Amino acid sequence: MSFLGFGKAAPSSAEKIAAVENELKVVAEMHSRMVKICTAKCLDVTYREGELSKGEGVCLDRCAAKFFEAHQKISDQLQKETQARGGGFMS
To answer: pTM to 2 decimals?
Structure first.
């Protein structure tokens, strides 16, 4: 039986679970990188105040938005390339 008409067998439950686990790992790693990069870029290391300043908050919002936008563009491009090669599967 083919999956999505590609002539390949449908992925097993174990393969689907492994794919989801891998996706979660990628997202967790992306989050860790984003926190590290945006914190270094936006926060004053002297910690003069207990709360974020308005400037720090705005910087963190923009940094996170740009990080996610870049991640999404890269993911979309990788998905297009994978589909062009006929590999992978979509849930």
So the answer is: 0.66
